[in-house]
Structure formats: structure tokens, C-alpha cells
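User:
Care to share a sequence and C-alpha cells?

Assistant:
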Amino acid sequence: MSSPSANGTAADGAPDSPGTAERAIARLEHVRFSYDAGATWALDDVSLDIAPGEYVCLTGANGSGKSTLARLLCALSAPDGGVVTLLGRRVFDGRGAHADDYRMARRGIGAVFQNPEDQIVTTIVEDDVAFGPENLAAPRNDIGSRIADALRAVDLADMRAADPTRMSGGQQQRVAIAGMLAMRPRMLVLDEPTAMLDPEARAELLAVLDTLHARGTTIVHVTHHADETARASRIIRLEGGRVADDGRTDATDAVPTICDASADAADDTAEMAAGGYGDAADGRAESSSRMGTDPDAETDESDQTRRNPRTETHRPPSDASRPADETRPDSDTGPAVTVDHVSFSFSGAESPALDDVSFDVRRGEVLAIMGRNGSGKSTLARLLCALETPSRGDITVGGVKVATGRASGASKRAPRKALRELRRQVGYVMQHPERQLFAETVADDVAYGPRNQGLSEREVDDRVAWALSMLGIAHLADRDPFSLSGGQQRLAAVAGVIACLPRVLVLDEPTASLDERASAAIRRLVRELQTQGVTVLIVTHNAHEARELADRVLVMRHGRVASLLAVEDAFSDGGALNDEGARTDDTNESDEIHAGSDRATKRPSRAPLAQVDPRVKMVAFLAMMFTAFAIATPAQLALCAAMAAGLIAAARLRPLRLLASVRAFLALFVVMGLLNVFFVRGGTPIAQFGPITITDEGVGIAVLYACRFALVIVMGAIFLETTTPTRMTDAFASLLSPLRRLGVHTQELSLVLSLALRFIPTLMQETMAVIDAQSARGGGVETGTPTRRIRALAAIIVPVFAGTLRHAGNLGLALDARCYEEGIRRTQWHAMRVSSRDVVFAALAVAYIAALLAIPAFLVW
């Protein structure tokens, strides 16, 4: 793709429509957009021009239409009405959407999503960055230079071989930007790219945007942060789907336009009085309701409250509603949280995520936990809530022993009885709120925890009404939680946790992606809970939030406690943090930036097996895996095991790590194989269990089948570990290419296979997140009766299905943004050529299969 010329040539080389390019790189005229067939309008009569080279910030409250407008500007959505012109092409007008023009416009516009995880399509950084240029059919010798330039621009040049799916959020966001830069766009549209980043990563990302803007790239940046709008040459503020303010301002004028709501929220917060669980005034509850409501919903909130009996009561429930067996097991003396020499390592990681962490949290204290992405903050939060078990150390929360074992060197998880008590004491709001919601309505979701506490339905309704009113979302009680905006979902998740009246509350990035009004509601809630003696731990990157709420600040670095200071000392001249929340020490932070998480380890790309042509490797592995099912003798089993060991050595994989990656499948197939013990009747009986006779032949066949299944799974894992999804897609498409003559869409089938393998771990994480959300609110998956566990597992199906659809939708947008289309001519950056290495590997595979089948038949088991 060529760079745009001075006379307005489009990114694909085609001329712009006459008379438009010099005036605007993007133009919207009276645009309307609806998600519900016109019942409501996400955008209503929006008109604006964006000139080449501008730096535009889109601001506004949650639900005001910012993300929708961003998608229109990057050609990923078409409106319901109006005229849209992008890069000089009229992509939408009264006649509808013009697919070809949309397709060509996307070639010159880059899109970066708020969640980069859904934008990454493969498991190697350089392959992911290459995906866009490949779709643009860029020359193969040009793709390499594009990758190098893009990775240098985002300061990831030394992580080309890393796995982006295992990187920190900040690194993933930079990989996503690099993928767009490699396509050399004229305009870059970013939807809240810094929402989940630490101060250092945020500063680095903003510096990248400044550099791109200086080079002439048009920037459109969706943000809630006033300091980010200060760098823009123009700020567009949306309210209720309309442009409320549009001005080209200097830096000093930029901040007030985004802070109008902040001043109102600050006034509301200043009116806060001590209250909470005991006796809060109705007026205070109404104030909190106003603070958490999107502007376009404020007008009808009172009407909806009157219509819904569950939202009539705004008085907080009394702590007396807690059942008698929920009283705290300990006295008010002593710390609320004790962490003693705790370490934790993820499976397969070379170094611990947490390393010898120790600290106490006093009762009624607010502790802010800060640090860079990947420093161990969220891992620590999960350990406190018993959602993970430490490798070593002791943890006590709310008087409950969460994990013990410092003396013996290996921690043990708390027994079920202790876990049930912990769920009554501790509330946990996850980093991704959409993964914490699972009921059919918001009210039902908030009621989940109180119901598990055994409360009456009236008490449950009181808890629900109070929690919703505290967060200002009473009008959302009957809404489907999966239909809410990201900000509304976060508030609903918080409501579901505080409805349990926890004694210790753990909040992981509670105000990320929230506008100032909703953030003020969260801050007000924390203050009120503190007045009632609730201990609050807040994982945050927001320095203002930490200074305003926290009593002390714990700073994590490389999985260790870097400092634990009173808030005034932490932000003092000699403290650990500056006003932006960044560390003030003089250590080389760039080392930490590039180190990333141990889970982003580099693949053994130079291993002999990884260098084999993927087509040869795919055919050879499939043949070896299928012939493994013909194993019927010990000699054949020994030969297959030797071959698997040789493949592991050629792939330079760690055997234990490989086995850990497939342990769930191994366990399943081993159980299936061992079932033969009970069904094979031949041979000499060796044991009798009622009507079941176990024979030596049955035992032998069971062992044979279990080992056979295990070896097949191990071989498949070796192939996946040494073949990236991109290479797998190319190989599969090449092998199926003869079927194109029959009308089979081989390229699309190959991509679906590749993406399925890429997103299976993501969906597994989604499932575990729902289970964790239920467990954190006393759900039955973890500690209930078998019947209750089955019901809880059944309740997972809907939210996991919704998560699958959400990921599929985001993936579709990501493929559009990277210009992937059905039937296009793509350039393969990695040329596939059969070499002598491939011939040798194929010969070895053929020899192995021949030897396996030639073992004498008389060597029976």
C-alpha cells in the first residue's frame, strides 16, 4: 500500500472523489445510528468534518455514542441514515452502503480497540503485525520492513518472537497499534486505548500517538482522560448521541470541555454524609443515583423507579439482615488481611508472578495497590479471594485462613467450610466486569449473592434495591446485563458484590472506562463503606483515585512489594510515586517494559522441528497420529513413545510443560481407556467386585488404550507448539487448494480453523471467569451439594455463549479492520518451499509408520 500523495491519492492508489480530499479525510452529514431498529438512537443527526493531519479527541459520558462514532469513522459500521465520506469515498448515502467503497476506505484507516485481546489474531508478534500487509497483498520483501518499522515505532522491536496473547495489557495494545501501522494508514482511530494501562505504559502509548501525528497521521482518540484531551488540536464532546461541543482549541482550552461532568460529580461527592449499611438519608441515596446515571437516561429514571417495586426502597439494608451464622468468626482486633511470605507461579512460568509478598491491612482501612501492568496486582487480588492457591505462604482474610503452609513450604487451600465463610466476608469485583455478569436481568444478577446467603426474598429485594440505588443504576434493574454498555456493566458488577455486605471488599480497576460521574459514584461508595468499618483494597492505576481514597499505598514491582507507605508519604517528594502514579526511583523501567510476563515467553522458533514446512509437518503428524490407533503390542507402544520423545527433543520443548498444557485432555482419555477394565471379559480373572470381573486381559487393554490416547494427544500438542496459527492457516489452505475448483472456500475454512485454535484458550478463560464470579458470591460450583453444583454449572452456559458471541463479533471487526476479505489475493510473508530438511523429516515419518506396522503380529499384548 503506497503512502498518500500530496494531491489526495487514496491509500490504495485510487484517486479520491473530486473536490473532497482537500477538505476532509472524513465527513459525516446528518448521520443517525440505532441498535434497536430506531426505538432509540445511539447517534442522532451527527455532522462533522475531520481534516487531514488533525488530532481529534472524542469525549462524553458512558453511552453518549463515542464508540459508535469511532466505528463509523473507521469504516467498521454503516449508519441508518445520512451521508458518510471516508478518504474521499462516499461509502454511505441515501442509496445505502457501498461495499466496494467501504472496502477501499478501510485500506487507509487503522482501528485500535479498547480491548486489544480480541484484535490479536495469531500467537507470534511479527506474524500478527504481518497479517494486515498480507491482506493488502503487499510485496513479500516489503512486509519485513513494514514489520520492523511498526515494531520500532511502538518500542517492541526486541519482542518479535513473543506470544502477544500472554503479554500485559499495555504490550498487547502496542502490538495492536503496530499491526495497524504496518498497513500505513492515513487515519488512526483509537477507542479508549489507555483504559487498562498503568501510568508508564499510558505515557509511552501517548508518546507513540504524538510521534505518528507529527509524521502527518490523522488521529481520532476516544477518551475520558482530561490530560489526554489536552494534547489534541480539537475536542468533540457527545451527549445523548449528539455533538454537544466541537471546537479547535489550544492545550489550555482542552481540559475544561471534558471536565464539566467532573465538577458536578465533585459537588455531589462533597455533599456525601457518613452512612452506608446502617442509616443513610434518602436524599443521599438519590444523589448517588444521579451520579451513576448516563445523561440520556436521567430524564426517565424516576418514572422507571416508580414502575419497578424493587427500586422503591432506597434505604440501605441493615446489617441485622445478615443471618446469624454469618457473623464474623473473629473479633474486631487484629488486621483484616494478613499476607505472610506468599509466592505464586503460573503453570509453566520460569519465574514467580508473586515472590515472597508480605503485608497487613488494618480493619476499616482503604489500601491502594499500584504498579505496572504485569507486576502481580490482579494475581494478588485473586489469591486474597481464594480463586487461586499460592505456591507458598499464609493468607488470612476476615479471620478466615485462605491458605496455609509457610512452614511446610507448600500452601494448602482452605477447606470447604472455611471457603463458605470467606464468601460471606469478602467481596470481589473483577477487572473485566462483563465476565462477572451471568443472570438474565441486572436485578437477578445482583440478587445472586444475597440468595446464596440464605436470606428471605424480602431481604434479598431490599439488598438489590439498595445496591442498585447506591450505584445509580436502579433504572437498569430489568435490563439484560449483556445489553449494557461497558460502564453500566461495571457498575452492575459492583452492585452485585456490595449487595452481599462484605466485610472486606477487593476492587480490581473499578473505575476503568467509567466517565467522571460514574467514577465519582464509585469513590463515594468506597468512602461510605469505610465509615461502616469495611476494609477496601483497590487495584488501580489512577493516582488521583489513590490519593483521594487510600490510607496507604502498596506498590508492586516484578511480583514483589516495592513499598508500602501512608498515602501522603507515597506521593511526597521522597515517596514511591509521582502525581501520575508512576514510580519516582531511577531504575531502568524499560527493562520491565520489555520483560513482560513470563507467560509471554518466546517460542523456540529456531528449533529444527519448527523450521519444517508446515504442509509437510501437518501431513506427517496427521499420519503418525492416525496410525497410533493401530498400536496393539508393547513393542509398538514403545516405538511410538520413542518417536514422541524424539519429536519433543527436535522441538526443544520442556516435557513437563508440554504435559501440563494438555493435562485435561490426558486425564479424560486416560479415564476412557481405563474403563476397558470393567468391560473386557477375556483372559484370566484377577479380581471380582460383585457382578464385575476384572481380568488380566482387561487390565492390559485398559493400559494400552490409555497410553495410546495419551501419545496421540502429545503428538498433537507438539504440532501445535511448533506451528503458529498463521503458518497452519497457510498450510491448510495450500493443501486444500485443489478443492477451490469445486467451489470450496478453502482460504476461509483455513482461517476459521486457525482462529478457533487461537480463541479456545480465551473462551476457557471466559468460562473460568464466570465460575470464579459465582464462587466469589457464594455460588455452588465450589462448595455446594452435587445437585447445586450441577445447577451452577448449567447457569454458566448462557454467559459463556454470550461471551462467545461477543468475541466472535469483535473478531469480525478485527478482520475487517485488518482488511481480510473472502477470496482476496493475499501475500504470504513466510514463503512455503519444500527443502532438504522437509524431505528428511518426511522420510523419517514414513520409516516410523512402516516400522510401526511391520512389528510381528505374534508379539501380542
Residues 609-651+654-721+834-861 form one domain. The chain has a mean pLDDT of 78. The radius of gyration is 29 Å. The first strand starts at residue 26 and ends at 33.
